[in-house]
Amino acid sequence: MAIGFGNLNGAVTANIYRASDKPRYRLGHGIVLAYIAIGFICSVIFGVLLKRENARRDRGERDEVIEGIENKRADEKNGRYESVHDARVDKGDEWSGFRYTL
């Protein structure tokens, strides 16, 4: 996705930095600043969402049922596994023990 946006920006840049706008290139610089602002806002939102997901996992809302391990927070809807290793391998980053790093 990032590569796609980078390629798209190359096409946009060729059209927003017009010779008629020199030497200040207000249109071009304005659009680039808008891209930077959008990227910053998206990064902040993504960080907040990851922190919320980590908090859910800390509270046990994503705990799987592991046979032989007593866990009152575990829920069948999150899956039933024979071992923690099986849950980790099967679920990947959706495993309840996985934490997103920020």
Task: Write up what this structure looks like.
It is found in: Membrane. One of its GO terms (molecular function) is transmembrane transporter activity. The chain crosses the membrane at residues 27-50. 56% of the residues lie in helices and 4% in strands. With 102 residues, the protein is mainly alpha-helical. The radius of gyration is 23 Å and the shape is elongated. It has helices at residues 2-16, 26-59, 84-91; strands at residues 65-66, 80-81. The mean pLDDT is 91. It folds into two domains: 1-59; 63-95, no CATH class.
Short description:
By secondary structure, the chain is mainly alpha-helical. It has helices spanning 2-16, 26-59, 84-91, and strands at residues 65-66, 80-81.
Q: Let me know the number of strands.
A: 2
Beta-strand residue fraction? under 5%
Q: How far apart are the termini? A: 20 Å
Question: What is the overall shape?
Answer: elongated
N to C succession of SSEs: HHEEH
Low-pLDDT runs of 5+ residues are none
Structural class: mainly alpha
Assembly level: single chain
Cross-sheet strand order for the largest sheet? 1-2
Helix content: 55-70%
Structural domain tally: 2
Supply the number of helical segments: 3
Biggest sheet record: 2 strands, parallel
Mean pLDDT: 91
Spatial extent as radius of gyration: 23 Å
Subcellular location: Membrane
Membrane topology: Multi-pass membrane protein
GO cellular component, one term: membrane
GO molecular function, one term: transmembrane transporter activity
